[in-house]
Automatic annotation (TrEMBL):
GO terms for molecular function: DNA binding; phosphorelay response regulator activity. PANTHER family: STAGE 0 SPORULATION PROTEIN A HOMOLOG (PTHR37299:SF1), TRANSCRIPTIONAL REGULATOR-RELATED (PTHR37299). The modification 4-aspartylphosphate is found at residue 55. Signal peptide: none annotated. Keywords: Phosphoprotein. This is Response regulator transcription factor. The keyword Flavoprotein does not apply. SMART domains: LytTR, REC. It comes from Aquimarina algicola. Residues 3-116 form the Response regulatory domain. Pfam families: LytTR, Response_reg. InterPro entries: CheY-like_superfamily (IPR011006), LytR-like (IPR046947), LytTR_DNA-bd_dom (IPR007492), Sig_transdc_resp-reg_receiver (IPR001789).
Length: 242
């Protein structure tokens, strides 16, 4: 069973989506409905849903602002919007998918099948790391049939780019791999040196050179690249670096 949280400031939209999920998607269970986006983070942290159906245009905190503030979460994020032009922005925000209002029954069913398939793929991926492997203090990255091994201290940070991940390395090197950020992070051995500071960034703490503490904050890394810190990660990052 896939657990889900619905977030929308319009009660009618919340109720309609819940009804469609209950009637057409028996493998999804709605565990919370939230009409005020300011309360969303507490619910998500408490319930740890597999999936979040998130409206874009909401007062106080928009859907995209909420994604940024959530930082490191395992949940699938599905944007629900009446505006098709948000599609490109949704891709950049690394969301799983988006649905147009009014939500079509067939689109919703197709989405749940896609989500279920992805969950199965991730399970197989975790149990069988064939193409990318971690060996002690190295990470192996496969690009076009060639596996290159890098020392962990060569990795400055990882950046999500849709279903791909860009890896920033020392000496102005970069690699792009066809795995999303969560999958790429799983290639790293358990190591306190790396930390997820934002929905789009996973950094090597040893490569931080400066930290500007406005709002969530901005990190300057050893390659002079800027990395955003989500607000909910600010306290933790300060503990790690001070």
């Amino acid at each position: 069973m896939i657990t889900s949280v619905l977030i929308d400031d319009e009660k009618a939209s919340l109720d309609t989506l819940e009804w469609k999920i209950e009637n057409y998607c028996p493998n999804i269970k709605v565990i919370d409905k939230i009409g005020d986006s300011r309360l969303a983070i507490d619910s998500i942290v408490k319930n740890r849903p597999d999936c979040i159906f998130l409206d874009v245009n909401m007062p106080k905190i928009s859907g995209f602002d909420l994604i940024e503030n959530l930082g490191d979460i395992e949940s699938y994020i599905v944007l629900v919007t009446a505006y098709e032009e948000y599609a490109l922005q949704a891709i950049k925000a690394s969301v799983f998918d988006y649905l147009l209002k009014p939500v079509d029954k067939c689109d919703l069913i197709s989405l749940t099948k896609k989500m279920q398939k992805d969950l199965v793929s991730k399970s197989l991926y975790r149990s069988n790391r064939i193409h990318n492997v971690s060996i002690e203090k190295k990470i192996g990255i496969q690009v076009k049939g060639l596996i290159s091994f890098y020392e962990l201290n060569e990795v400055i940070f990882l950046k999500a780019e849709g279903s791909y991940t860009r890896i920033f390395l020392t000496n102005n090197r970069m690699e792009m791999i066809s795995k999303n950020l969560k999958e790429t992070i799983s290639l790293l051995p358990d190591n306190e040196v790396f930390f997820r500071v934002h929905n789009s960034y996973h950094i090597n703490l040893n490569h931080i050179t400066k930290y500007y503490k406005h709002q969530g904050g901005t990190l300057i890394m050893s390659n002079n690249e800027s990395v955003s810190v989500s607000r909910c990660k600010k306290t933790e990052i300060l503990k790690r670096i001070l």
